[in-house]
Amino acid sequence: MADYNLGYGGIGTGLDINGMVSQLVAADRAPADASLNRIETGAKFKLSALGTVKSAFSALETTLKALKAADAFDTRTVRSGTESVLTASAGKGTPTGIYAIEVQALATASKWVGTQATAADQTFGAGKLTLEVGSETLTIDIAEGSTLADIRSAINGAAASKGVQASILTSNDGQYLSVASSKTGAANAISLTVAEGGSDLQGLIGGLEERTPAADARVSIDGLVITASENKISNAVPGLVLDLKTEGTSTVAVSGDAAASRKVVQDFVNAYNAALTAINTATKYDAENNTPSALTGDAQMRGAAGQLRSVMGSLLGELSAAGLDANTLGLQTKGYPNSDGTLVLDTAKFDAAMAANPEKIRSAFTGSSGLAAKLETTVGSYLGTEGAFTQRTNSLNAQLKDVAARRTALDQRMEAVGNRYKAQFVAMDAMVAQMSSTSDYLAQQLAALAAQTG
After folding, report:
1. Hey, where are the domains in the chain?
2. Does pTM surpass 0.90?
3. Which of 110, 143, 291, 426 is exposed most, by the fewest CB atoms within 10 A?
4. Is domain 109-212 classified as CATH 2.40.30?
5. Do residues 128 and 141 lie in contact, with contact meaning Cβ atoms separated by under 8 Å?
6. Model pLDDT for residues 176-209, shown as the tens digit of each residue
7. Residues 365 and 329: beta-carbon distance below 8 Å
């Protein structure tokens, strides 16, 4: 607020000019302030309510996208008959059925252990080792005077990145060199030979014995044999992953996941109901306290709720015509006495329908021509950069921006009014001071005249 203080009261009148100017400006300002505050409060109130409704529509759109997906009902459950032999997992769309599985062999990694005991302080002459890792060949330099620990470090320095590790095993009669691969499968076999070096190095490396050969896993699935370099089979049955534990037989049962299929529909039902509830909350009228909500009587909100109910009613009619009526599918609008347009899902009926007609339900809900896509089109018209709710939000934000600009202009105008009032009061005070001075002078002259004639 502008400062109209003169630093002193009126000289001629003794009036509080600053206070009077401030009160007059406040009185002039009050109607405009009240109008701007009313507009600002209303816009913010509507923005908050609209934001809640828009958020509910966004959540509904998310569930519709999930329901529209081609694999929305393809979640699988899988059970291994003998988990000590293998465990299994299945992705969406894995063919259902029972698979007879025999683990004939596990994949193993190559491991070599020395047969020549070596003292910790024994040294070896210079030389070169050749390490073959699958189809790759590495050359390892051995320095003159290397100990067994030095040879181990030289191997690790050259081959650790290839999944090969050398170590020293200690027994009662000395130390032994061990070289092993961390990668299973025949293609990852390793071998170590001496390319250059004396008899001491020849004896150390030549004495290595293959304790575990590199081999592929071998599995029979329904009589068909599959091999793999790891103890994980993932390319035999689409979406099915087998983790092999030991040799033996087991069955793996893959079936549709009724709970997951039900959840994707229940999530939609919950989100749809939340969208209608958000509109009802934003538009309800508190009759007891005679208080409206932010969007009571709002045409856009009535239109959105009406459109949702209308489209949903049509879609339920299409489901019924396709043999998926409320009694069969378990999906319907809430009935009397609480028929508010919200949906209810009878989970027992839905599970039974999924078990009996999974493809019919998939066709009815998913894809570009299913229920989810059709309702998503309606919901999407309110969202996004061109959506009705977005445009309404932009309009309200523009209104708030206009209020701020008008308040700035009001401040400037009121400052000019205050300065005008101050100038008028100062002029009046100067006139009163002059008149007071003249009055005092005349009084003195009259007094002097009276004294002369007395």
Report:
1. 1-75+257-440, 76-106+217-256, 109-212
2. no
3. 291
4. no
5. yes
6. 999 999 999 999 999 999 999 999 999 999 999 9
7. no
